Amino acid sequence: MAKTVFRNNHADIAYGHEVETTVASATAAGGAVKVYPAAIQSIAFSMLLRVEGIGDVTVTSVGSDGGGDYFTFAGETAPTAGAAIRTPWLAIGPLLYTRAENSITLAYTASAEHDLYFATQRTPDSGWITVRLDGAEVAGSPFDLAGSLALVAVLLKEKVARGEHTVEITAGFPDPSNDVFVYFDKIELLEHVRQTGGFYYFLGPAPASLETSTINFVGDWNGTSLPGYAFTNTAGASAFFYPQLGEDGEIKIRVQKTPDSGIVAVYKDGAHQFDLDLYADPAAAPVDVTLFSEPETAAAEQMEIELRLKDTKNALSSGFFFYLRGTVVVFARTDAQALQLAADYLERVAALRGDGAFLDAYDSTRINFDANSLYGCMGLLAAYQALGDPDYLTRVKEFLTWFAGMQM
Q1: Nearest 10 degrees: CA dihedral of 256, 260, 263, 268?
Q2: How far apart are CA 310 and CA 238, in angstroms?
Q3: pLDDT score at 226
Q4: How far apart are CA 25 and CA 115, in angstroms?
Q5: How far is residue 95's CA from residue 7's CA, in Å, rounded to a whole number?
Q6: 380: enclosing H helix or E strand
């Protein structure tokens, strides 16, 4: 699996609120409700609040008197003492949005190096977000989300190391007195899963979707089972994959060339290499296009390849479409490389849960309670003796600790 998606209803996402307090006392008279909160916090004029038992209200004034700090809103009913007061997250279709400095926090474990994205709706009246990863503010933060109306994935940080992480995203606003919004769609982890040889179809394991593919799709993409291509016609949409290129190797893509195809820019490790004109009349599919062949040195290397649809096309083309069926990696392995490939797969499966238990496979949530896990550990021990990677030994120790705990 290449892409992990955390949506706004994911159980592990924690939502913070700029204002989070309770009602100490409240009165209602003359169409106005005066509320004395347990703590005034940052409650201000025109702020939207959600008051338990009342609903969403807009602050009409703030002040202080003999009873303490208070705020008012228009209404006839006073909330009860102890009722919760929060700056709300609101829903519009599948999106959540906020007008306050609310936050989203996610603790997660990734089994591979990955890129971290924040999917949002960009609007002319969008605010910005401040992002902290493992307690430190990331480079480029705060990120300005204002712009033309569009659903976008904002890159927060590239090449985050595998392991346990906590990301906190806080909404911010240039002028709190105006209606400014931050929209939340989902958080995406784009894992750099190595493609080590063979054909990699654009769909992932069942249930097949772009989000479980070993190819990372960024931007406006769709997929169909017939004729079996991922496709886009949105300039700037990209497909990323991470092939391993060695001696006598080749990196190819399998595409459809059509009368409505556009031009795709090919990037290697972030640097532009060349453009591909995919126009053809009549249409031709499937077509294997070689991107790279044997490297300059004999040493095997892992690449990051990006295929980005441009806003240009052949003068004869009737559209800007890009149809991608998959990627093809031709790789010749030594015995040591084959052993490392198998051992790395076992090590990554062992790391997925984080408690030492082995899962059946990437597309299953079942735990291997039977002898398969022990066979896997024997393989990792043999690989450790041959290759010396301490991660192999660590996974065996973690499994044995977990297994012993299950017997008690």
Answers
A1: -30
A2: 10
A3: 63
A4: 48
A5: 9
A6: helix 371-387
**Amino acid (1-letter code) at residue 301:** E
The set of residues, in sequence order, having a beta carbon less than 8 Å from that of 62 and lying 6+ positions away, is 40, 43, 44, 45, 69, 70, 71, 72
The CA-to-CA distance between both ends of the chain, in Å, stands at 34
- Contact of 61 with 71, CB cutoff 8 Å: yes
Say if residue 287 is exposed, middle or buried (CB neighbours under 10 Å; 0-12, 13-18, 19+): middle
Q: Please report which helix (H) or strand (E) contains residue 239, including its range.
A: strand 238-245
Q: Which two tokens stand for residue 163?
A: 């392991």
Beta carbons of 157 and 138 less than 8 angstroms apart? yes
Which tokens go with 347?
Answer: 């090590």
State phi, psi for 142 to the nearest 5 degrees.
Answer: -80, 155
pLDDT per residue over 144-179, tens digit each? 999 999 888 899 999 999 889 999 999 998 776 677
Catalogue the long-range contacts made by 133-138 (C-beta closer than 8 Å, 24 or more residues apart).
133/157, 133/160, 133/165, 133/166, 133/167, 134/165, 134/166, 135/166
pLDDT tens digits, residue range 78-101? 999 999 999 999 999 989 999 999
Q: What is the DSSP letter of 181?
A: B
Tell me how far CA of residue 206 lies from CA of 105, 176, 362, in angstroms: 29, 46, 11
Condensed to tens digits (0 to 9), the pLDDT of residues 56-76 reads 999 999 999 999 999 999 999
Q: How far apart are CA 272 and CA 159, in angstroms?
A: 19
d(CA 262, CA 361): 38
Rounded-to-integer distance, Cα 298 and Cα 355, Å: 39
Q: Return the number of other C-beta atoms located less than 10 Å from residue 368's C-beta.
A: 19
Is residue 338 within 8 A of residue 246, CB to CB? The reply is: no
Helices 335-351 & 371-387, crossing angle to 10 degrees?
A: 130
Q: What are the DSSP E strand ranges found in 258-321?
A: 263-268, 271-277, 284-292, 301-302, 305-309
Residue 167: both structure tokens together? 């990301």
- Token pair 């919004």 is at which residue? 181
Peptide bond into 207 cis (omega under 30): yes
Copy the structure tokens of residue 193: 């899963």
Place of tokens 């490297």: 295
